[in-house]
């Protein structure tokens, strides 16, 4: 089968923004500081119940709350594999952090308040025939991974695809999306694309 | 028939009993008769004739008869008296081999003939001219393509090849004289034409190589020989390799030796190799071509190479410039280096106007043109210049002459086509070549042997070459210095500089220091610049890391540079003082700075023993300077932490091989590994004091400045860690008692010090290395030094050094015993101190921990549990049990803190006893712990203390020579785990039930899953209930983690509890406020693991309800939990 874009531009994964990478770097830099670690390190007897004062590691105060943000939404969809190439949507530049928009609920005090997520996709070529499949996969991924209080909208970024209006219409049509998801063959393709999201 | 034993031999197979022994007797008897001369070979052959002669039709009989001959020859202890005897036998055997009359049974027994000839040709009485007869007979086996030879087994063929090897090795002259080299080679070619057996090829290749190297043949002869082996190139072996077969690499190497055996092969070799290098072929073939080419350029004569050098260059250069495979590029560079090394050899009369210099000039000019024109060729070109330059002084001089002026101009030109970074890589390559040559010259000089063929240049001639090279290099000194120093200041001032440029410049500066006789005067200032870059805050982190690595490298080859420049420069940059205290978790900026400098200094200083010693000595000096100022305890602690860190870095970098590495002051009687580092700190921190109130003296701590600021827990902890490192270090020293160069483990500081003291002096375990003067002051109160209630806190802190010392004592080393302390007394004192509610102990965590650690070491390593204190009549174990029982029975009224202390001490005591597998004491101690679980006010803490029993410990470990028995885990499970489950079932109080589960978690967390699987029906209900514990998150997380481990190991049990598991896990994720993030994460991992390991049919029915629950976790406050929830949901969503 002929590919829509046989030679796409690939971004080095190490240059992609990710919470996971940041955590890794932080851990490494901590390990490097030998004297500092000796000087500021915790006692190796921390397991001794008689040594510790009563403590609790439950999330009892608001300071432990890490709200969902654009980076986290990006991390959910970045690893999705392109249906044509063995690269992630992030490495191909189809999804970008700056194209993930998160709208806060108008009244956050209400439990049922909805947040709105808009993801704009940039196909690798303007005639990409798989833009709908990619959009559908991003949408399914976010529908699955975000809490029900989030409304997800996936669009093709303006000016990046010849038939963006048509594709956007399909992606916004809930009934068409639901019908597509009943198609076993299509779901097989989407599952394959999302396999990489399951990797630790 | 004469009595030669032939007849007995022939009937021996019919013997029923002990046939082998009978045969052996016959052979021995005949061999002895031959040795004595009573039987000669003609008689033997005559006797054998009926069995092996032309008339015999039974081939089994022929084989049997022929088998006797090699056995007799092998058993003979002396050669026959006359050469005629040997010649007769050789002739007889050769006749059978040649078989000109085509007797059918002569085709049998060839293996035995080969055995005989292999023995006979090695005999001194073998007639040299018979070598031709033997050779021709063997060659006749394959003559006329009758293929008799190739039909033989490989082992028989191998024997014939070995005979030929013996002939070539020993009878070269008769063979060449009577047969002619070409004729011999012709026979050998025909014989081995169809050979494919690896085991035979090994000998054949050696034979070809030997003949090619040693024999003088006509061109036709060499051509025949070449044809013999070239058809095997490149050699490939089948997948099924037997043990007795040669390794592929061995065969490849032997085949390469055939290529290089004679210059005559040069033409054919280069045509074949160069012609095939770019052919469409597998990677293995190409690799073999490159390796063979490398062998050829390193071995052939200069004359031969000169004919081919241009063609070799034309082929190899593209391999390097355009190649994509790093391994091939490295091989090609090696060929280039080999070619120029051979061409530079002084056994060929060169001068600079000869073809060599014009060839090298042409090559280097081509490289320069290429690198100055296109960026992409620079890296390959630089590597080529390194390969050529490092081949000889002359080559490097020509390289420099041709390239340096041009590259220097380009580096000064802002509009050059090539980046600066790339140009520095070219300079670096040339400098590296110079360094490589200097190292090679040093090796050459050290191993030079006059007259040896491999040393084709005299030291005087090399010295002249070196002199010329130095003169040539000096011409470029100034521009190189300007370029590198200019670039480093540019790199430092521009934060956005490409890190690759910075790396190239820094690497170049290291090389400038390494190049001999070039920057001798500037070496130190270059090092200062690198030091400065590491020290400056404004330097980028990348550049700091690059310069740090460079300084480390310099410190290894230039220790004086470290001692005279780097060390003082770093120490000078340390703050004079640090004012104020650090916050609990954020150090002051000055502290951060000092720690960064000292950390880097430690990393540089651990590069050698001498560097490390100098660093430690500088640290102690700085310690003294700082101590002279008031309020500097934080800084002093940073300095001692730096000493501890550097010691750890150095000790862990010690090579495993023994070395005479101990440096100690011969005047200092206190010796041992790191004594010169540990004792100065000990002398400054430990001292003899008097309590403010009361009488007596004690060994305690000195003050950091005045009474207002004594040394604290951290100071003593660091010193203790240094002491333990010194005690456990793998240091060796030369054994002075042995006449040979043998090494013995160095005595540790404790052994060494105690041995040096006058008789009757207490061990340093107690005295902490105080001198006799100090000990005289303490003398009256020495017996009570471990009575901690009596002394101020600093005495207890100082006693933690006894723990540190004891941790390093190896109880299995008899030379370290007796200990020099009364084990029972000290252990009892530690129990007493540990349970004491004396207020001073609450001020020092170290004091409490070190008392418990000392107790553990005494119990585990020195059997303290069964020892009695010198003034008591009950054992240490009984003291502990009585304390617990007294509290439990209410006979003695303890306050709350004391009760907790009792149970804490009990847990530590039990852990030490259990690790040593002391059956009786461990059982009694754990029994008390189990009873403690039910205590209303203390039960929870006692339950939690079960996790101390098996958890990895900083004290109870193998590095400290403790006994850590693996079986203790299963034993504890049987002894306490099962009891706790029983108690959990039978107890009615919810608190006690929870305590039982908390205690169980402390055991389960550290035992093998296999033990749990064996007892799965017993334990699983408790585990499930454990996931609901509200009082202890650690225990709850442990049970969830354990269930996660069991999902793949016990699927049946999991299925039978499926709903319970799902309910409990979703309860964890539903209520984030009541469950720690760790519990929530693990719960989601359990739910996800179910998808992978449980029958899908069982899960599908629960799918939608579960997904709804996981949706709740998608809104969890913790990002990690949400991430796990998303992964869990997708796993369940995909269930079909």
From TrEMBL, chain A:
Keyword Amino-acid biosynthesis: no
Biological process terms in GO annotation: chromosome segregation; iron-sulfur cluster assembly; protein maturation
Biased composition (Polar residues): 1-12
InterPro entries linked: FSCA_dom_sf, MIP18
Gene3D superfamilies assigned to the protein according to its UniProt record, in alphabetical order: 6.10.250.1280, Fe-S cluster assembly (FSCA)
Keywords annotated in UniProt: Chromosome partition
Record GO cellular component, one term: cytosolic [4Fe-4S] assembly targeting complex
Family affiliation: Belongs to the MIP18 family.
Name of protein: Fe-S cluster assembly (FSCA)
Native source species: Glarea lozoyensis (strain ATCC 20868 / MF5171)
TrEMBL record, chain B:
Pfam families: MMS19_C (PF12460), MMS19_N (PF14500)
Main location: nucleus
Key words, A-Z: DNA damage, DNA repair, Nucleus, Repeat
Location(s), subcellular: Nucleus
Domain MMS19 N-terminal: 45-322
Record has ATP-binding as a keyword: no
GO BP field: DNA repair; iron-sulfur cluster assembly; protein maturation
A single cellular component GO annotation: nucleus
Superkingdom classification of source: Eukaryota
Annotated MMS19 C-terminal domain residues: 702-1090
InterPro entries attached to this UniProt entry: ARM-like, ARM-type_fold, MMS19, MMS19_C, MMS19_N
Family in the record: Belongs to the MET18/MMS19 family.
Its biological purpose: Key component of the cytosolic iron-sulfur protein assembly (CIA) complex, a multiprotein complex that mediates the incorporation of iron-sulfur cluster into apoproteins specifically involved in DNA metabolism and genomic integrity. In the CIA complex, MMS19 acts as an adapter between early-acting CIA components and a subset of cellular target iron-sulfur proteins.
Protein name, per record: MMS19 nucleotide excision repair protein
Native source species: Glarea lozoyensis (strain ATCC 20868 / MF5171)
Lineage: Eukaryota, Fungi, Dikarya, Ascomycota, Pezizomycotina
